[in-house]
Amino acid sequence: MIQIHKTIQERIQENWGGLSAGQRSIAKGLLERKDHYMHHKIENLSGELSVSTASFSRFVKKLGFENYTAFRKQLAEEMLVNLDPTKKMQTFLSKIGDEHVEMEQQIFKDITTMSKFMQKIDHTAVDKAVSEIAKSKSIVLIGLGVSRSLVYFLDFRLKRMGIRTKLMTSGGAEFIEELTTVRKDDLILTISFKREYRELLLAMKYAKKNGIRTISMTEDVCGKIAKDAEIVLEISRGPQEDLNSIALPVSFCNALLMRVATVQKEEIFDHMELLSDLNKHY
To answer: What span, in angstroms and rounded, lies between the C-alpha atoms of 20 and 26?
Structure first.
């Protein structure tokens, strides 16, 4: 069990009076996107905050950490605590009244998350993903945990478009057996959020070793899964401390496949005619 006696935010608050103007700027930038920085090397993190590595090293020591490694270890532990669904549900329930949850409020939160997300879509990565999906005859969809829901949604849509799919949603020995059946002409599409399952990491390494194309749809663009993927598509479920919604990821998947559909109009029309003809004789 992870135990954090004093959080990074608490350390910053305790030392605020002794921080220089530059260190206060570092603290503000860090607290705004803690989850984004949890896997960053010091060079990457200091670069994004527009400070030198030496300045960031002095900052973490000012907070009482021996070095950057110790700081990053605690940052990762704090983020893992935030991932605990039980804690998220407890926090969520403590914020609502006894009668009912205002549905409009929850929907508005999803709309706000989507609005912010739309401003940072990587259209270059999306274009590459559309091209790879459109030319693929077989797509392997991989996702564990809550990601399964997106796998099933993509599976339904892709089959309607006439694209053959293979689903990998179980872990352990079954996953490994399934992985050995993936071939070089397949396209692997993994879906993950902050938690990086060992199975997905294994799939990426297997793909890299065997020259299999990969797309990673992930909430953690700096994580290990994204690092090994050829194309990375960022998705978001909103603030890490909240009980997260998958409204945005589902919407993103739908929009992505609509883009693919514009590239494959003729093939999809032919497939839909075939489907319609078979339904007539059913």
So the answer is: 10
- Topology (CATH) of 111-280: Rossmann fold (3.40.50)
List the CATH code of the domain at 8-82. Answer: 1.10.10.10
The token pair at 173 is 């020995």
φ/ψ of 232, rounded to 5, equals -120, 125
N residues, the chain: 282
> CA-to-CA distance for 179 and 34, rounded, in angstroms?
34
Q: Where are the domains of the chain?
A: 8-82, 111-280
Q: Rounded to an integer, what is the distance from CA 157 to the centroid of its chain?
A: 20
Burial class (CB in 10 A: 0-12, 13-18, 19+), 196: middle
pTM, 2 dp: 0.66
Angle (CA) 91 93 99, round 5°: 155
pLDDT tens, position by position, 184-240 = 999 999 999 878 899 999 999 999 999 999 999 998 887 889 889 999 999 887 765
Please list, in sequence order, all residues whose beta carbon lies within 8 angstroms of the beta carbon of residue 53, skipping any fewer than 6 positions away.
42, 43, 46
Q: Say how far apart CA 280 and CA 80 lie, in whole Å.
A: 52
* Strand 213-218 relative to strand 231-234, pairing: parallel
Please name every residue paired with 140 in a beta bridge, in sequence order, or none if there are none.
166, 188
| Same topology between domain 8-82 and domain 111-280 | no
The two tokens of residue 21 are: 């103007």
CA-closest candidate to residue 241, choices 85, 108, 77: 85
